[in-house]
Amino acid sequence: MNLQSKLAILADAAKYDASCASSGAAPRNSVGGRGMGSTEGMGICHSYAPDGRCISLLKILLTNFCQYDCLYCVNRVTSNVPRARFTVGEVVQLTLDFYRRNCIEGLFLSSGIIQSPDYTMEQVVEVARVLREEHDFRGYVHLKTIPDASPELMERAGRYADRLSINIELPTAEGLTALAPEKDSAAIDRSMARMAVHIGEARAARKEQTAQAIVSMPQSRTTRRASVPHFAPGGQSTQMIVGADATSDRTILATSARLYGVHRLRRVYYSAFSPIPDAARALPLTAPPTVREHRLYQADWLMRFYGFAHEEIVPPSQGGMLALDMDPKLAWALAHRERFPVNLNTAPRELLLRVPGFGVQTVERLLAARRVRRLRHADLARLHVPLKKVLPFVEAADYRPGPALDAADLAAQLTPPPVQRSLF
What we know:
Blueprint: H1 3-13, E1 57-61, H2 88-100, E2 106-110, H3 117-134, E3 140-144, H4 151-160, E4 163-165, H5 173-179, H6 185-216, E5 236-242, H7 249-262, E6 267-272, H8 290-305, H9 310-313, H10 328-335, E7 342-343, H11 349-352, H12 360-370, H13 377-382, H14 387-390, E8 394-395, H15 410-414
Parallel strand pairs: 1-2, 2-3, 3-4, 4-5, 5-6, 7-8
């Protein structure tokens, strides 16, 4: 099989993996002729860092052969799909060639399991090693790791990758046992814990080195200490499939909250289940509405940046599921109208963050502005917030919502009809 045919198969097979955003990479570039690649600048794909940089990634599998028979996976051993496999050298060459053509700024590499977890992980790590050590590639590298691989291989992966990810696959251990019996949820958890320890130790060592360098700077400007090596500076992420089993949104968010708290994950990605050919009878016949995936991302954002606890986002009255016809922040506000209206001039930051239509940056600007003067209705218009959504929940020096907050049809006024979109 020629390289182009392999690329067509293995790039398409990688599209189901959502966990490939490039946030957290250390800034590196090849300005001045040093090395090759960059984690900076604009690309042609759609992975965005928190500061707005778009980093294009070559997103492929090393191989879509796999000895596991996970029922939800199109690449499972019993699946009737075309198979292909790259060599280490082919992945390296593709990455460099695409970079030279200004098509990508980095690599996202995953793989099916062949021969053994250790053998597969060794091949994945070797790609990153050759790029870094033999070609001085300074672009972004995200490696999908294999939980059953040896700790030594996982540690090596962290030396070369900007981010590592280990897929939890399904939100519960029971779901994983039912749909992917060859995978071990305890092993996945142990691997995440080890990774978190390595990442934490590397960050602490670099902080200590930076502090020592500042203290010793006046005494000696000529002594150079060896730099503490990076270990997955972008942290670790994971992905879970939504809708392959009957797990509720409330349980999914509880699992995510645990991963963020215990393993300090940088991101949890949610991937709506997509029906596959020759699927097992245990799987649903249709995909869940993609708006459910969208609502989970919104709820995840509320946990990470807006101070919401996972258990308060999905009220018991909704049967453990997020409302599909409105975003979870608005749903919470409508269910807790007694907490509103919020006074823009006196309310604490924590309460302002709960106002529908207010983002984190908007709240910071409001807090900064009210230090010098009282906020008025016109200030909201200057911030370009969605006034229709915001006004029923706030009051300012010259504005009161009046009976608008108690209107029986307020939810209908603020929620446009949902739109169902396709996955790909």
